[in-house]
Design brief:
By secondary structure, this protein is an alpha+beta fold. The chain is 41% helix and 14% strand. It has two domains: 139 residues, Beta Polymerase, domain 2, CATH 3.30.460.10; 134 residues, Four Helix Bundle (Hemerythrin (Met), subunit A) (Up-down Bundle). The relative contact order is 0.10.
Amino acid sequence: MRSEKEMMDAILGLAKGDECIRVVTREGSRLNKNAPVDKFQDFDIAFIVKDMEKYKSNDDWLDAFGKRIIMQKPEAMPMFPPDWLGKCNKFSYLITLEDGNKIDLTLVPIDELKYYFEESDSLLKVLLDKDHICPVINEPSDIDFHVKIPSEDFVDNCCNEFWHLAIYVTKGLCRNELLYSIKHLDLMKEQMLTMISWKIGIQTEFSISVGKAYKYLDKYVSEGTWATITETYKNNTVDDVWDSLILCCNLFQETTNYVSKKLKYKCPEYNKNVANHIKQYFPPGKTGNIKIL
């Protein structure tokens, strides 16, 4: 695998030799001093260019980075359209190279430079500005990704969604519909992890990020909480999913009570209402396991 210096030399070498590329920026975890450093980090690069079609019409110019084993162009994929489109008319290449390096390269039309900077996050650095047209920006930091203080409505909405989904999971389990139940349990867990992240935010004065897809969560929760979270992913059988549902409900209630108390918010009544409701459908031997807090 080529080193970071070798990769950046290839990226900037291409940009410096191409008059159509006027600005190069870098984004992502390689700029984040709080992110773990390893060989799997992507190179998140943007080229601000004078002529988008010059690049979109032929992919041969990408050979400068090395041999590709797979590439995605999200804006050109009807089945998987990107979810990041805004005012800026970007075009992206998600490239995995034969040596293992990965480049997420974005093209931006130069007349939309303003929108690009408006829509970028705090992990951004200008590497090349041939015409001195870029605005002055702060040093890269992960502040935009810190856990944010939720409003009382947000906490209520999180609870509402969690317990609404709990009814679906229970219904699916009663019908022995394993995949249906797992699908909705996964959606429940998204709300559970959100609530846990708010608890971590409170404990750290909202000064940290738990990472994309909660990947740093284990660094901030107790060993017991982490063990409970991982236990909820054992979903091979209907019986496993019943156990996971109970664990999720108990952990969510406990965390919601903590968050509500610390932020001086009213804890929603349906925490208890739905927990009591779904208990009546639990199989023998499991009805006493869910707590009503």
